[in-house]
Amino acid sequence: MSLSKAKLKYIRSLEQKKMRKAEGVFLAEGPKLVGDLLGHFPCTLLAATTDWLQAHPQVRADEVIGLSTDELTRASLLRTPQQVLAVFRQPREEADVEELAARSLCLALDDVQDPGNLGTIVRLADWFGIEHLFCSQNTVDVYSPKAIQATMGGIARVRVHYVDLPALIGKLKAKGCPVYGTFLDGKPLYEVPLTPNGIVVMGNEGKGIGAEIERLVTDKLYIPSYPPLRETSESLNVAIATAIVCAEFRRRALTK
């Protein structure tokens, strides 16, 4: 079965957020990523080369299409197509997000704009066993193809919630939940007591954490450069900063 013009147009339309939202789906490409997501999300369409399909006879999807290399190249959003692409259904939103955030360590993103950063942060959350990520409504869509590729399969195990972030954090703070945030004027990360639960807020690439959420933060954290007072870069990339902060939280948990 070859790829029809309508199906080709449909696949490529999923680069647009409005189409992903209207259909409730997202696109993933490549053997590793698609393989990681199969079994975690319902697959509505899988298109792959004949060789890939023959090597994976047990694959299940609502629709399976065998493609030539040229057809896959036309359908793919990647510069170098990788044997298989698949369309998955987005998960349904969970209801009680406050309870999810209160009982474990979670991450929150305040208007992160780069899909590569967001996808990398999902991948980091997966590595450090953080199962829930709360995003402001203005944070980039995690289901964009670039973000999905950057998760490297982490999206299968990390639930991403788009919420009214100030309202959520305000409710959590009122319940006594620690709220951490990264700031250039915070206390050195390695000197602040850290709890195994709470919410860690990371800010926008250019502006950092907004004033509304800053007022709700209970513990301001700063990642010190080395050596102290040495002239250095103005700030760290938000994904790199997230990795450092998460690693320190988990190190403390392991040494208790």
What's this model, at a glance?
The protein has 256 residues and is an alpha/beta fold.
Written description of the protein model:
This protein is α/β, with parallel strands linked by helices. The chain is 37% helix and 21% strand. It is built from eleven helices and ten strands. Helix 4 links the parallel strand 2 and strand 3.
Tags for this model:
11 helices, alpha/beta, 256 residues
Q: Return Rg in Å.
A: 20 Å
Q: What share of residues is helical?
A: 25-40%
H/E series, N to C?
HHEHEHEHEHEHEHEHEEHEH
- Detail the poorly predicted runs: none
Task: Note the topology.
Elements: H1 5-13, H2 17-23, E1 25-29, H3 31-37, E2 43-49, H4 50-55, E3 64-67, H5 69-75, E4 84-89, H6 97-102, E5 105-109, H7 115-127, E6 132-135, H8 145-151, E7 159-162, H9 165-174, E8 179-188, E9 198-202, H10 211-214, E10 219-222, H11 238-255
Parallel strand pairs: 2-3, 5-6, 5-9, 6-7, 8-9, 8-10
Antiparallel strand pairs: 1-4, 2-4
Helix pairs in contact: 7-8, 7-11
